[in-house]
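Page 47, continued from p. 46.
Same chain as before, 231 aa.
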Amino acid sequence: MGKKAGPAKAKRHIGVGPSQEPTKTLGKRPAIEPNEEEERKKKQREDEERTEKEKWVAKMQKRVFTCERQLNPKGLGTHPVIAAIRYHGLSFFFDNLGCYRRKMVKNFYENMVVHRRERVVVSQVGKVIVEVTPDSIANYLHYERPADGTSTYPRNPLKMPPNEQVHTLTDAPDSFDPESGRYIAGSLRAKYRTVNKLVHHNLSPFSLDKTPTSYDGKVMIVFGSEKEKVD
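Result:
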């Protein structure tokens, strides 16, 4: 005798019926909403900026670096760069640095956030929020900014072929390394050796004054020229 047939098994109809569970697809992540994606990218940018800032602070502390340095005209004698600095309305570089507080300056740079598009620097020193703008700097230094549309730099960045830039800054072409894009400061022409210190300590404290970059070279040429109007 044959075996008795058991109860019939219910057939599963995949894809039919409102109560069916959604089918899972292996290997695919769930879709991220646009707002979630923006928040994720924003947090990633903030983390990267915070990490870079921490690295910079640690590096500066090891070098015992101060971003401010007074330019002493007595040490320059009758150097023509003095006339160039005064021509650009930058005589305040020769003024005494009064009320300097190293700890406050250090805290300012540690907490500094640069908003390049708005041209605003915001930081916090203790409980005080400090906001720095081009106008506030000019007001503090008693400096009259050029009228709108009259400045040439940085509104119109200097455009100069690399070979011409090297020839302008130094009479020793070997002092420029094309691979690293850096100069040897000691091999710059006398005028630009002085301008290099001015540019480095006041405008580009993140760079190395002993080995200025090609970008630093452009800024040096601008500040060494009476044809340029800097703001």
